[in-house]
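Annex B. Sample input.
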Amino acid sequence: MAEYSEKERRLLLQLAHDAIAAALDKREIELTPPSEHLGEHRGAFTTLHEAGELRGCVGYVFPMYSLYRTIAETAVAAALNDSRFTPVQRKELSRLKLEISVLSPIQPIEPDDVEVGRHGLLVTYGNRRGLLLPQVPLEHKWDRETFLSQTCVKAGLPSDAWEHGAKVEAFTAEVFGE
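Annex B, continued. Sample output.
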């Protein structure tokens, strides 16, 4: 069962669009959560797609702010500050499709217990950390071991670091979008 109602989902997606447009116009928007539920501190990611292709993805792994503020900030960061892409231009706004992933608390997990399609992963070793959302292995048709290995690679670690002392943590995500 979904934690967020259709109304809350639409509100968060509209907030993300509004936040990106406001940032491009160099204006502020109101970030007071409209409900106690959207005021809860949660980790979340905002992903942008244009013509079916990834256009940006930024998030907060840990719950630092209200979900409402987190969505606004991550949407702007995905549009303007994802180092993999040039900043979104105003002419692109109407073509952007957004996806939001609201994260559960992160918990340690044994690699054998990782479920592809259910878990997102955070792999940490020393000062290196890599995260992949639960939908990523499904999009790439990865099995559990490939998912673990690719999360290590994202962290800049050897692909087998999960077998050699890297900390493996998991979370689930409620994912919704346009």
